[in-house]
Amino acid sequence: MNIDKMKSQHVEIIDKLNKLRELSHAGISQHAKEIAQAVINMSSVIKIHLSAEDQFLYPYLEKVNDAKLKRMSLQLQREMADIVIQYEAFSRRWNTADKVFGHDEEFRRDANIVLRKVHERMHKENHDFYPLVEQI
Hints:
By secondary structure, the chain is mostly helical. Helices cover 86% and strands 0% of the residues.
């Protein structure tokens, strides 16, 4: 299965995470508008990515004759459900400048928890899961 598009979406999401980190370090309230827009932009890519996984990748993997890959796929789907809930709450909470401005510590704390999980998940997929998918 060709997963190049999913891999490129990971790169795009990581770029957006890095941009969000840069803006945060430069001053959360001072860059509230840019941060909110970055959250919206990242959410769009994440939604497209998750949709592709749900519609194409996971259904495809249900049909392969590889028990290890099937187990990993099911485990990743279960783990992702919690991450999605947390990310969606994060993105709704911080999607406007008014919500970000004046809430520097809350944003920083929330971002450190939720976005770290997103980043760790992509790392796991890139290093453990996608190489196995590409072998079939």
